[in-house]
Amino acid sequence: MLRKIRLTFAVLFFVAVTVLFLDFTGTVHAWLGWTAQVQFLPALLALNISVVVLLVLLTLLAGRVYCSVICPLGVFQDIVSWISGQRKKKKYRFSYSPEIKWLRYGMLGLFVIALTAGIGSFVALLAPYSSYGRIAANLFAPVYRWGNNLLAWFAERADSYAFYETEVGMKSLPTFIIASVTFIVLIVLAWRNGRTYCNTICPVGTVLGFFSRFSLFRPVLDAEKCKNCSLCSRRCKAACIDYKNHRIDYSRCVACMDCLEICKHDALHLQYRWKKISKPEQMTSSGHVDAARRSFLSATAVLVATPAVKAQEKKVDGGLAVIEDKKIPVRATPIVPPGAWNARHFAQHCTACQLCVSACPNNVLRPSTELTKLMQPEMSYERGYCRPECTTCSDVCPAGAIRPITVEEKSSTRIGHAVWIRKNCIPLTDGVECGNCARHCPSGAILMVPSDTDDVNSVRIPVVNAERCIGCGACENLCPARPFSAIYVEGHTVHSVM
Predict the structure, then answer these.
(1) What average pLDDT score do residues 422-440 get?
(2) Which of 188, 240, 318, 481 is buried most deeply by CB count within 10 Å?
């Protein structure tokens, strides 16, 4: 019964978190956004003390329930392990193995050092929720959107508008590669050894494992009833049940309850910690040698769908001229979203989960390719601009890297300033009037003036008032100059309010 309850909640949490990264309509987060906010590391970085305390108390009560129910990466590994276990010969494929303390606590130490030093790229690699987020955003989301576009294609031919097409594209090659490698490694480890990743590498699992040693309710192995059949040990995906000595390593137990179901001698029970249990009069040891669990991992070929850059070719002038894609300008200072307030705060709190990148309705956020900020989102305006009325990224961020911000605050926050490039401006290169940047500037920071001060009838060029510019990128995005815009946005290290 306990196992079925655990599985039900695990599936609900897993689906809810996954849908957050798949949704492109912006409606799901209002209902399911709390599932991202109850993740341990994002809550810790956001100083969401109530969530952190709740998860710690839950662990002290019933063990690592978080790892088997709430954490999407843990549930994903359970799904892979379950599929592997459907093979008859591999149904009971696990065995007890001692804790690898030097690796487990060494990774935790490196994680804490990286977190303290602000090395966001290393933190992002090990954070479990963020790792799954990148997998969902880079591997699952494109497939989901392709399916949506296929339905939209059929709906269009049936004169229905129940579905609409959405853009499918690769936002960052390094992030896609890292997500793919993580995906493959997790599948291989879970397929062969269950929760090896959670009990050796994952820092959250190590921290919660410390508290689970003192959990009030835990599975207990009754030595008098135990027949040493080893079924529980061979079914334990955490490899934490030593049936010979009738011991369970509670720091690695993920409270999956599989052992309670599989025991045929009624020797395993969920018991109160301080309840007295019987001990065997005599312990016997056998010369059984543990199966070789340290064999080299075999390579697994995984078919990964590569997102297409374009669904179809976009044209202008009745299809006579192809629109050339814009190239990203070289910015001296990257642009971080409003609500981050400053680049340092953003880098220290962001875990690169890609939720804001997936949720951005304006297609502005892109994972960074810089090594020190690898996979952390930054703003780029070649496909859209940051609309002043949109606060989606601050609404969905669970780690506090982008703090909640109102529309009024965003409209008055300077995240950057526009810079005009004279040699790219169409009025000067082609001798025609333009003024696209000035017409679409929401803050009125751009004014068109004659290019020749002595001739009021000369073509007009833009002049930027940096004090009024908020760095939204409307000018850069809507500039018709190709491949580089005649005006682009330089970021501010520290945001300011007008």
Answers:
(1) 93
(2) 240
Contacts of residue 305, Cβ cutoff 8 Å, sequence gap at least 6: 139, 142, 143, 146
Nearest-angstrom CA–CA distance, 329 and 324: 15
- Strands (E) in 405-478, as ranges, are 413-420, 446-452, 455-464
Question: What's the rounded Cα separation, in Å, for the pair 30 and 45?
Answer: 22
Average pLDDT of span 28-37? 93
Nearest-CA neighbor of 254 among 210, 212, 293, 291? Answer: 212
User: Dihedral (C-alpha) 468, 470, 476, 479: value to the nearest 10 degrees?
Assistant: -40
The phi-psi region of residue 222 (left if phi > 0; otherwise alpha if psi is between -120 and 50; otherwise beta) is beta
Cα distance between residue 47 and residue 465, in whole Å: 38
Tokens of 207: 């921290």
CA count, 13 A, side-chain hemisphere, 413: 26
pLDDT at 88: 67
The amino acid sitting at 489 is V
The model's pLDDT over 192-209, given as tens digits with 9 standing for 90+, comes to 899 999 999 999 999 999
* Residue of 429, 433, 425 lying closest to 479 (CA atoms): 425
Q: What percent of the chain has pLDDT over 90?
A: 67
Q: State which H helix or E strand residue 464 sits in.
A: strand 455-464
* Whole-angstrom distance, CA of residue 70 vs CA of residue 82: 18
How many whole angstroms separate alpha carbon 496 and alpha carbon 493? 10
As a whole number of angstroms, the distance between CA 45 and CA 400 comes to 7
Residues 482, 448 contacting (CB under 8 angstroms): no
Which residues are within 8 A (CB) of 199 and not within 5 positions of it... i.e. 6 or more apart?
Answer: 99, 104, 205, 209, 238, 239, 240, 252
To which residue do tokens 């090395």 refer? Answer: 119
pLDDT for residue 309 is more than 70: no
For 401-405, the CB contacts below 8 A with 24+ separation are: 401/45, 401/340, 401/345, 401/346, 401/349, 401/350, 401/351, 402/337, 402/338, 402/339, 402/340, 402/346, 402/356, 403/339, 403/340, 403/341, 404/339, 405/338, 405/339
Boundaries of every domain in the chain? 2-151+162-272, 313-497
Distance CA 333, CA 335 (A): 7
- Nearest CA among 171, 128, 173, 204 for reference residue 356: 171
Task: State the CATH architecture for 313-497.
Answer: 2-Layer Sandwich (3.30)
Q: Is the whole-model pTM more than 0.70?
A: yes
